[in-house]
Amino acid sequence: MPVSEVQKPCLTQTAQGFSVLYKDRFLYSKYSPQKNILSVVAGMEILPGTIFLCVSPLLCYGVQELAERLPTDCLLIGVEADPALHELAAERAKALPCAQNGTFVLERPEALRAVPEKISRLNKGQYRRVIRLDMSGGAAFLAEFYDSLFEATRNAVSQFWKNRVTLVKFGRRYAKNILQNLSLVDKAKPLPRVQKPILVLGAGESALQTILAIKREPTNAHARERFYIIAVDAVLQTLRSLSLRPNAVICEESQDIIARAFTGCRAWYDTLFVSASACPQVARLCPQKNVFYTSLYEQTGFLLQLTESGILPNPIPPLGSVGLSAVKIALSIRADERIPVLVSGLDFSYSCGQTHVSGSLHERARRIKSTRLLPFRAYGASFGADSIALSSKNGASVYTGTALLSYARLFSFIFGKEKNLFDVGSTGLALGIPQQDIADALAQEPQPIEKAEAASEGGFTPPPAVALQGEPHSVSQFLAKERTALVQLRNIFTGKTKIPDSQQNAQIERLLQNREYLYLHFPDGYRLSLSQDFLNRVRIELDYFLKIIGKASENC
């Protein structure tokens, strides 16, 4: 809202400095404005690798004092969402030495939602925690937004370390899958442009009620044509058993077990949105139906080179959940943001003993393995050490875990402001978007879109039309370049290529640049090391990836 439309903040002289009067409230003490925040700063224990989220810094009391106590690997980020207060804070921050040398950064109100993603890009292992500091009474005006921002920022930092655990386990598989899928990229379809309502179906329990509501429609045949349906891979078997054919399926799982979700369903969809790091076995089922996207699971030169040169299309940030990726895709492919996107089955919770929709891959697997000693119902998920009992959006008692709860909060933060995004699921955690009954959605007549406008800001970043200078712009060129570099590395390690000791490390470092797939899955692989132990492990990986690249080249 423009500053002219709200009451402007007024500086008020007190006995020991200035306070601010805004919206009939003093945002600092009327007696000693600086005292509280300075005492908090003085008493803080500051640990290395900390990001301080300075909420409503306003007159910037305590900011310079805090900056002077920080280790070099800490960061101060000022967030002021109110435009009127931000204008005042920006004027005060200009004079601070910590703002001039980059230790303190005051983010613009319109850029606050991008702060978690910015931290994800900056974090290369040096940040470990986020501390929130409410530096004035202005933090109370938009308390809910600041709570969400802090949670998302904290998740962005913790996600790096969670990703490290994931990458140690799956990082090699991700790289292998990408290299194997490269031969299919040229055969893939382009992104569709959809001009009718889109329905995203996750694998949560609420998906079943939505599917049955569609099938109960008197004009069922027409009702199924009303939506462009995108289903996550795990719910495909449920849809087939209920004879509801989706337009598209999305697959992000890297492990081969996900191929079971497609058993008998090869002809049951028209489009497969498939992550570049997804299981190659699934991508090869119907190559002509594939639409590739690239989940940037780590900010590496390897992935950025592939996406910026246009070899891997449609990059999206790592969202951690195939359901969130499906919503991201749905928002990206609608021809106009007036087209509604409906989501169901993104519950991020479950009822007692039931973790997925009936008939899904997970439920079928449990049913097959069930015995009298191993019951079909998954009560361990409901009453495990990580389970949390909450109330769902319809008031029923549901269970969730820390990971699922973080996905629900991430959904709300990323998609909460999207236009024409509705939740038609009847159960599960609240997603921070408007609720709509599926029957009402079916009853609405589709609005004609006269002119297709640009997709919403949540869309894909299109790859450049021209490859980066000096970089390969085709799959075969890229694979040939990688094979040459890996052979050169192997020759150096084995002594086949003789290089003076003074030049050897520089040559190795040059060849390892943008080839993080060789070491990203090491426990210490978030940064390149030239220690002998590290290079010995790289040497072992060379032969493995040379075989993968050789087979991929044969398929091109």
Commentary on this structure:
There is one protein chain. The chain has helices at residues 35-42, 63-69, 83-93, 97-100, 115-122, 143-185, 206-216, 220-226, 236-241, 280-283, 301-308, 322-333, 361-369, 379-383, 402-415, 438-443, 475-494, 501-512, 532-555, and strands at 10-14, 17-22, 25-26, 50-55, 75-79, 104-107, 129-134, 198-201, 228-232, 248-251, 271-275, 290-295, 315-316, 341-344, 388-391, 397-400, 421-423. 39% of the residues lie in helices and 13% in strands. It starts with 9 loop residues before the first strand and ends with a helix. With 556 residues, it is an alpha/beta fold. The chain contains 19 helices and 17 strands. The strands form 4 sheets. It has an 8-stranded parallel β-sheet, with helices on both faces. The protein has a 4-stranded parallel β-sheet with strand order 6-5-4-7, sandwiched between helices. A 3-stranded antiparallel β-sheet has the order 1-2-3, with no helix packed on it.
What are its keywords?
disordered N terminus; 17 strands; 556 residues; eight-stranded parallel sheet; alpha/beta; 19 helices; four-stranded parallel sheet
Question: How is the secondary structure organized here?
Answer:
Blueprint: E1 10-14, E2 17-22, E3 25-26, H1 35-42, E4 50-55, H2 63-69, E5 75-79, H3 83-93, H4 97-100, E6 104-107, H5 115-122, E7 129-134, H6 143-185, E8 198-201, H7 206-216, H8 220-226, E9 228-232, H9 236-241, E10 248-251, E11 271-275, H10 280-283, E12 290-295, H11 301-308, E13 315-316, H12 322-333, E14 341-344, H13 361-369, H14 379-383, E15 388-391, E16 397-400, H15 402-415, E17 421-423, H16 438-443, H17 475-494, H18 501-512, H19 532-555
Parallel strand pairs: 4-5, 4-7, 5-6, 8-9, 8-14, 9-10, 10-11, 11-12, 12-13, 14-17
Antiparallel strand pairs: 1-2, 2-3, 15-16
Helix pairs in contact: 5-6, 6-15, 6-19, 17-18, 17-19
